[in-house]
């Protein structure tokens, strides 16, 4: 998965520039930090990547495909290649943890067995298998953000874009989330982290950083070359190493388009629960009210 911004300008009105003549590239498997104060253009880059916005000038390329040339019916398939992690989590309050992670899989038509396997694997990855039946209101901020990351990974995207993922977290929870994102990157997924959190920037100081100010790219710590992975210490390797992932496929939803393949990184399976809803007597007092499933879902 590669990304290229070529002289991209995005305006709102005649005089308000969200991005001004921005050019950079991201190679497959990179971890890149987008930094700069609020309003510098970080979130605009994300919205251009998911084709929510289109630039007034320049072009955005994803996998060597100009996003401006995507047909309308191709946009949903494109967006499934990008998992977005938001500052405020965007979890659905009426669904429990399991159901929140499973929702994207339900939307793209995955069967129950595949959904159960995938959700179980993702809960294992983020270290929250014991929270499957809780609702968002019962989670800490750090737990909610890790569930948000699991949901972003559900359809096997090639890119994770984390937009201020630690903005609502304390320092300890912030580091847990950033370590998880770095672990996901080391499993092969390209990761972009937009942040101005000083703790995160210090922790990721060895990674490539793109600095934005008032919509302009003012600094690229590793321009025009693929960022090298930092050398891990023995202690870090022991704490973060996971078995090599296997690959599976995600099918295209467009009936008139050829199925597009996307690598899904799988972690070791754990024992799967018989149901994503607990028995009535096992519920906590705060979660006795069953969450209603949406009647339908639209991509």
Q: How does this structure look, described?
A:
This protein is of the alpha/beta class and 299 residues long. The protein has a single domain, classed as Rossmann fold (3-Layer(aba) Sandwich). Helix content is 27%, strand content 20%. The chain has 8 helices and 10 strands. The strands form 2 sheets. The chain has a 6-stranded mixed β-sheet, sandwiched between helices. It is globular, with a radius of gyration of 19 Å. The C terminus is likely disordered.
Outline the secondary-structure elements:
Layout: E1 3-12, E2 16-26, E3 31-35, H1 42-49, E4 57-62, E5 65-66, H2 75-79, E6 82-85, H3 97-107, H4 112-126, H5 141-153, E7 159-163, H6 171-186, E8 190-195, H7 198-203, E9 208-213, E10 216-220, H8 234-240
Parallel strand pairs: 3-8, 3-9, 6-7, 7-8
Antiparallel strand pairs: 1-2, 1-4, 4-5, 9-10
Helix pairs in contact: 3-4, 3-5, 4-5, 5-6
What is the string of helix and strand elements?
Answer: EEEHEEHEHHHEHEHEEH
Tell me the name of the CATH class.
Answer: Alpha Beta
Question: Structural class of the helices, strands and pairings?
Answer: alpha/beta
Instruction: Report the CATH architecture.
Output: 3-Layer(aba) Sandwich
Order of the strands making up the biggest sheet: 6-7-8-3-9-10
Give the helix level as a range of percent: 25-40%
Q: What is the radius of gyration?
A: 19 Å
Describe the global form. globular
CATH superfamily: P-loop containing nucleotide triphosphate hydrolases
Low-pLDDT segments, ≥5 res:
227-274, 279-299
Tally of individual domains: 1
In DSSP terms (H or I, runs of 4 or more residues), the helix count works out at 8
| CATH fold node name | Rossmann fold
Terminal residue distance:
22 Å
Beta-strand portion reads: 15-25%
SS elements, strand count: 10
The biggest sheet, with number of strands, parallel, antiparallel or mixed sense and barrel status, is: 6 strands, mixed
Overall average pLDDT:
82
Oligomer state equals: single chain
């Amino acid at each position: 998965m590669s990304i290229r911004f070529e002289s991209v300008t995005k305006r709102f009105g005649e005089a308000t520039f969200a991005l001004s003549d921005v050019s950079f590239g991201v190679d497959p498997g990179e971890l890149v930090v987008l930094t700069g104060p609020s309003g510098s253009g970080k979130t605009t880059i994300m919205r251009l990547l998911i084709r929510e916005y289109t630039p007034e000038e320049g072009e955005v390329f994803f996998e060597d495909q100009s996003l401006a040339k995507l047909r309308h019916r191709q946009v949903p398939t494109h967006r499934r290649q990008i998992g977005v992690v938001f500052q405020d989590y965007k979890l659905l309050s009426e669904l429990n943890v399991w159901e929140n992670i499973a929702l994207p899989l339900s939307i793209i038509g995955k069967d129950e067995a595949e959904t159960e396997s995938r959700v179980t694997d993702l809960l294992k990855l983020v270290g929250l298998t014991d929270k499957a039946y809780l609702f968002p209101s019962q989670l800490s901020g750090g737990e909610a953000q890790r569930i948000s990351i699991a949901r972003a990974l559900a359809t096997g995207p090639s890119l994770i874009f984390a937009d201020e993922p630690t903005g609502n977290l304390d320092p300890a929870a912030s580091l847990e989330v950033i370590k998880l994102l770095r672990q996901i990157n080391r499993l092969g997924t390209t990761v972009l982290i937009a942040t101005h959190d000083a703790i995160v920037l210090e922790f990721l100081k060895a990674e490539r950083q793109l600095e934005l100010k008032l919509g302009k790219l003012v600094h690229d710590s590793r321009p025009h070359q693929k960022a090298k992975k930092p050398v891990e210490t023995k202690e870090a390797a022991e704490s973060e190493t996971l078995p090599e992932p296997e690959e599976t496929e995600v099918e295209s939803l467009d009936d008139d388009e050829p199925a597009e393949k996307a690598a899904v990184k799988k972690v070791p399976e754990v024992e799967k629960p018989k149901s994503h809803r607990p028995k009535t007597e096992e519920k906590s007092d705060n979660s006795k009210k069953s969450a209603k499933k949406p009647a339908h879902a639209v991509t």
